[in-house]
Amino acid sequence: MTASGRAVAARVLGAAALAALALYGLRAGGVSWPVSLAAGAAAAMFTLWRTVAGVCVACAMVVVAAASAVLLAGVPLRVPRGLAGLLVALELFGLGSVAVVALVREPRRVSHRLLGAWFVSSGTLLLGLALCSALPHRGTGSVLVAAGLAYRLGTVPAYAWAPLLLRHPSALVALLGVVATVAASAVLLVALPRLPDQVAAARTLAVLSAVTIPWAVWHAVRQWRRDRRCALSNAATAE
Question: What's the domain count of the chain?
Fold first, then answer.
C-alpha cells in the first residue's frame, strides 16, 4: 500500500472510531438514537471530508442533531443565565478570526482546518446546550458544553482554534490567538458554575487535562529548537 493509501485508510479508521465513540457516549448518556446517529455522522464527516464544504455540511449535521434533541424532548432551547451574550460574542469573534486568517493568506482563502476546529467546538457546544435543556440529559449536556469550550483552548490533543491562531506566522493572527485564549478561558470559567451538572463538567475537564497537559508539555519541549511558535502554543495549552 502506498503512503497516500495508508493515509486514507488511517483517516477512514479514525473517522469510524470517532463516530463510534460519539454514538456510544451519547447512547450511554441516554440520548435518543436519531440524535446520536446524527452526531456520529457529523463526527465522521469532520474527520473524512477535509474541505470547507465538508466542514460546513458536518456542522449542519450537528445543528440537525441539536434541533432533534430539542424537538424530541419537547422543550425550548435554554441557555444558562448570563451565558447567552458571552457565547454569541465568542461565536462572532471566532468567525471573525477565520475571516482574518483568510485575508492574510496568499492566495486568500478560508482555512478548512481552522474553520473545522471552530465548527467542531461550536457544534459540540450547541448540542450540549440542547441536551442541557431536557431534564434527563442535563449531565450529558453539561459534559458536552465543557468539552466544546475546552476544545477551543486545545484541551483535546488535536488541532484546536486558539493554538492554531497562536502558532500562525502572521503577527496580527498570533495576537488574535492571545486574545482568543484569554476570551475562551474567561467564558469557560463563567460557564462552569452555571451548568446544570457542574460535577460532570468538572470531571470532564479533569480527564481532558490529565491527557492534554503531558502531551502539550512533551510537544513544547520537543519543538522548542525547531519551531518556537508551535512550542509556545503548546505551552499555552498546557497552562
Answer: 1
